[in-house]
Design a protein that fits this description.
elongated
Length: 180
């Protein structure tokens, strides 16, 4: 089921995830206040980018979309997508520069932590067969879960460090008050 309300990752997030820039992701001030149980339960984001309108059967974008929509999207694959992912479709303009990957048909999978954990481009259309595609999805589900667990561990560690710092500051303030 395609969810039209899903927000796709922002360009700066994409740049970091794809290695197009050396900039690190921005850490939010409320990063430590994230509900870890909710984060653990969130599904990865499956985004299908397709070029429209395009009708040339020799165009690689057309071939990719046709192979995905008519070859891969069978009942068992759709069930897997619905069970393990939040799915979104994004229309790309046909007049865009097709030499750039971001303007080509593709599939991207993003973890709930907004890290890209998988991509299939028009050059990797061999994955657009049922068995390799299911394997691709399973691998990305596991990678996403690992990414989320790592992020939860990082946040828990930072929370403990913050608590220790607050306790130390409180003790130092109490000692300072006694000395005054």
């Amino acid at each position: 089921e395609w969810d039209p309300t899903v927000a796709t990752p922002e360009p700066e997030t994409r740049e970091v995830a794809t290695g197009e820039t050396a900039a690190a992701p921005k850490e939010e001030a409320d990063d430590l206040d994230i509900d870890l149980d909710a984060l653990a339960k969130r599904k990865p984001l499956f985004i299908y980018y397709y070029v429209d309108p395009i009708a040339d059967p020799m165009d690689d974008n057309y071939k990719f979309s046709r192979k995905f929509e008519l070859g891969v999207l069978q009942e068992s694959v759709v069930d897997t997508l619905n069970k393990y992912f939040v799915c979104a479709k994004v229309v790309l303009p046909a007049e865009a520069d097709m030499k750039k990957v971001e303007n080509q048909s593709r599939i991207e999978i993003w973890s709930p932590t907004e890290e890209m954990v998988g991509r299939i481009t028009i050059n990797q259309d061999s994955l657009l067969n049922k068995s390799p595609f299911i394997s691709f999805l399973k691998t990305r589900i596991a990678k996403s879960q690992k990414t989320v667990k790592k992020e939860i561990a990082r946040i828990e560690k930072l929370r403990k460090e913050r608590e220790k710092k607050l306790e130390r500051e409180k003790r130092e303030a109490e000692e300072s008050a006694k000395n005054d």
